[in-house]
Amino acid sequence: MTSTRDLVKSERGRMITPFDEIERWFESIWTRPSSLVAELTELSPSVDMFVDGNELVFKADLPGVRKEDIEIDITGTMMTISGEKKREEKLEEDSYYRFERSHGCFCRRFDLPEGLDTDKVKAHLENGILEVRIPKSAEAVSKTKKIAIN
Questions:
Q1: What's residue 44's pLDDT?
Q2: Residue 21: phi, psi to the nearest 5?
Q3: Residue 65 to residue 125: CA distance in whole angstroms
Q4: Alpha-carbon torsion 17, 19, 25, 26, what sign?
Q5: 3-state helix, strand, coil in the chain (%, to 5)
Q6: Which CATH architecture has domain 44-142?
Q7: 132 CB neighbour count, 10 Å cutoff
Q8: How many C-beta neighbours within 10 Å does residue 116 have?
């Protein structure tokens, strides 16, 4: 059986309990909440969706992500853009050396409207911007009507 004395650490002459460590962890979250939000935001890419002519276009911000690390799937009327962000940062100075790595997965899902030709989807990644273009089906284009305003 573990005694209370075994659970207590010493820090510069002061006794630290596990509860002190938990309190310190919670304080760090509340004093630096922006760092936690920034990490979550960084993993979930922002995506613009708009119509360009006869195509539905998605533009996702994926800086530093390679095309090999991105997957685009369409199942029925659901499109999923997922992948993994990996980052390495290396800094060498005269007095120190720092090498940091981070990675995380992201996944965004979108409900697609009826009338798209998902067999003719095109995707392109350039300068950290993923562009996915889904054309309207020929039937949907032929059913489009222009309405005059009086």
A1: 80
A2: -65, -40
A3: 9
A4: negative
A5: 25, 45, 25
A6: Sandwich (2.60)
A7: 22
A8: 19
**H and E: helices and strands count for the chain:** 4, 9
Residue 147 to residue 47: CA distance in whole angstroms: 30
Helix ranges restricted to H, the chain: 4-7, 18-31, 33-43, 138-142
Whether pLDDT at 75 is above 90: yes
Percent of the chain with pLDDT over 90: 42
Cβ neighbours for 69, distance < 8 A, ≥ 6 positions apart: 83, 84, 85, 86
Question: Looking up tokens 């993993």, which residue turns up?
Answer: 43
The DSSP secondary structure of 104-119, one letter per residue, reads EEEEEEEEPPSSB-GG
Domain layout of the chain by residue ranges = 8-43, 44-142
What predicted TM-score, i.e. pTM, was given to this entire model?
Answer: 0.63
- 7: pLDDT confidence band, cut at 50, 70 and 90? very low
Q: How far apart are CA 134 and CA 116, in angstroms?
A: 7
